Amino acid sequence: MRIHIPVIVAALALFTACDENLSKIAGPSPNLEPTFASIQRDIFETADSAGRVSCIGCHTSTGRNPSGGLNLNHDVAYEQLINLASRGKPSAVRVVPGDPDASYLVQKLEGAAGIAGRRMPFGGAPFLTDGQILILRRWIAIGAPRN
Ligand code: HEC
Fold it and tell me: Buried-most residue among 16, 36, 116, 135 (CB within 10 A)?
């Protein structure tokens, strides 16, 4: 893919200008921002809108083997995601910096065609909202920085 820098800069400026509206689209996680720290805190470690266990209820090495071989504990989550092959679908990569569509994490959360296993979270709906996924996508699109 050829990256057109001015278009990206313009899109980012627009997105930043709308920052005060992010809380509206983020739904159940009003503080969610397109940073890794926020995604860790507001998605991976926060009970969902139905009050069920968060992602790290299953994706943890604390007292168990992490589900799907994916450990989202605070200190290792970033390394577990970036440029690392999926366990369930080894041809897929969990997070491809700059390419949300190719990122298996996004595919699993959207229930995309071709995923192995279930759409996440494992227990079924409610899934992440479109707004939450949009913010996650944005973080990946800008290069999935460790911020
Ligand atoms: C109740 C337990 C449970 C919860 C909660 C859960 N998962 Fe999972 N997850 C699993 C299991 C089991 C698998 C492996 C089987 C499958 O893929 O369906 C898995 C697989 C995955 C995979 C694929 C890993 C790979 O390498 O193939 C991703 C990505 C993922 N989960 C992300 C998440 C995210 C993000 C959340 C929170 C929004 C979440 N999961 C919540 C149990 C859970």
Answer: 135
